[in-house]
């Protein structure tokens, strides 16, 4: 079952944030994927909780997921959304990138 696509206006930010947090949980549930994510971001477990509260970090989580088609498809199926909804959530965060959380 696929969840309804992204709404317009004020709910987009909340939906994008929720999906990104769900994405982080999805990545963390797979040891290989999570270790790759940590290596690419330069984060350590001690920094993860603080970083997870930052919109730029959450955008990066979605970038990581979108960056691999298999991961994107698996996450979208897990979350009950379409892959294009994940891309829409990423766009809702804008184009800012995190400098460093390590």
Summarize the structure in words.
The chain has 102 residues and is mainly α. The protein has a domain at 34-102. It is 68% helix and 0% strand. It has six helices and no strands. Helix 1 crosses helix 4, helix 1 (11-28) packs across helix 6 (83-92) and helix 4 (55-66) runs antiparallel to helix 6. The longest helix has 18 residues, at 11-28. The protein is globular and about 30 Å long. It starts with 10 loop residues before the first helix and ends in a 10-residue tail after the last helix. Residues 98-102 have low confidence and may be disordered.
Q: How big a fraction of the residues is strand?
A: under 5%
Mean pLDDT: 84
Most strands sheet: none
User: Which structural class fits the helix and strand makeup?
Assistant: mainly alpha
Contiguous helical run count: 6
Alpha-carbon Rg, integer? 13 Å
Total count of strands = 0
Which residues sit in consecutive blocks of at least 5 with pLDDT less than 50? 98-102
First-residue to last-residue Cα separation: 38 Å
Q: Looking at the structure, what is the overall shape?
A: globular
Order of helices and strands: HHHHHH
Helicity level, as a percent range? 55-70%
